[in-house]
Design goal:
Number of helices: 6
Strand order of the largest sheet: 2-1-3-4-5
Strand content: 5-15%
Number of strands: 5
CATH class: Alpha Beta
Largest sheet: 5 strands, parallel
CATH topology: Rossmann fold
Shape: globular
CATH superfamily: Flavodoxin domain
Low-confidence stretches: 196-201, 207-213
Mean pLDDT: 89
CATH architecture: 3-Layer(aba) Sandwich
Length: 213
């Protein structure tokens, strides 16, 4: 097993030019800088029907649900940016979480989530930046076996926060969001340190989790 942590990053939005997808890409930069391999997904590539157990029993999970589950199983950590819809998470994000949570292909229910480390973030045109939705997302993930780090970032007035090229303008915000990715990568590296330490891994990489930044 490689000592390089693998992290999957995505937004709970299928909108073209999604601000939250731009946001999670900033966190992915931080994770890569901390030595992680990061896969950034666009949820437009994974259209799925609304979860329905009758549909599941009749036809099995949708193929895109299976693809997404395989990706989750192959990664150690999650970076999730969630828009806020009516003070909660998007239907798209909840639906994806539900389909991936199901038992399938020899894997038990919740296998794609248990033991994962995650960071959550949000961007919204509102002043709170989607903060209320993150409360629900954190609760859902924690209840299905994901360790969600304490730090999170909500970017308010996000329609003015990025330039035309999708770059986050404020350097302080950018550093904070990159720090989320760094924190997940650092925690995963510490958790994966072998005993005894392999010669290619410094003991400095194996100290307990510290806030990045």
């Amino acid at each position: 097993m490689s000592d390089q942590p693998r992290i999957v990053a995505f937004a709970g939005s299928a909108r073209k030019g999604s601000l939250n997808l731009q946001l999670v890409k900033v966190a992915a930069e931080g994770a890569r800088a901390a030595g992680a391999e990061v896969t950034v997904l666009d949820m437009r590539d994974f259209p799925m029907p609304l979860f329905n157990q009758d549909l599941e029993e009749a036809e099995g999970p949708p193929e895109n649900g299976r693809k997404l589950r395989r990706i989750m199983l192959a990664h150690d950590g999650l970076l999730i940016a969630s828009p806020e819809y009516n003070s909660s998470i998007t239907p798209l994000l909840k639906n994806a979480i539900d389909w991936v949570s199901r038992a399938d292909e020899g894997n038990r229910a919740l296998a794609a989530y248990e033991g994962k480390v995650a960071a959550v973030m949000s961007a919204s045109p509102g002043r709170l930046g989607g903060l209320r939705g993150l409360v629900h997302l954190r609760s859902i993930l924690s209840n299905i076996g994901v360790l969600v780090i304490p730090d999170q970032v909500a970017v308010g007035e996000a329609h003015t926060a990025f330039d035309a090229g999708g770059v986050l303008i404020d350097e302080g915000r950018r550093a904070s969001i990159q720090g989320l990715g760094q924190s997940v990568a650092k925690l995963l590296r510490w958790n994966r340190c072998p005993e005894p330490l392999a010669s290619r891994i410094s003991s400095a990489d194996c100290k307990p989790f510290e806030k990045a930044g």
